[in-house]
Amino acid sequence: MSKLTEKEYDFVIIGSGLGGLACAYILASEGHSVVVLEKNHQIGGHLQVYSRDKTIFDTGVHYVGSLNEGENLYQFFKYFGILDNLKLKRMDDERFDVIRFQDGMEYDYAQGYDAFEKKLISYFPEEEQAIKTYCVKIKEVCSKFPLYNLRIGGDSYQMDEQLLTLNAYDYIASITSNERLQNVLGGSNLLYAGVKEMTPFYVHALIMNSYLSGAYKFIDGGSQIAIQMSRGIRIFGGAIYKHKKVISANYDENGSIVSIALENGEIVRGKQFISNVHPAVTIDIFGEDRFMNVYRNRIKNLPNSISTFLVHLSFHENSFEYLNYNIYQHHIDNVWDGIDYEEETWPQTYFVCTPYISRNKKFAESMSIMTYMKSSETDKWAHTAKTVSEPGERDLEYDLFKKEKEEKVLRKIEEVFPGIRSKIKAVHSATPLTFRDYIGNRDGSLYGVLQNSNAPTRTQINTKTRVPNLYLTGQNISMHGILGVTVSAFVTCFAFVDKEKLIEKVINA
Question: Which residues are in the Amine oxidase domain (predicted)?
Answer without folding.
Answer: 18-478
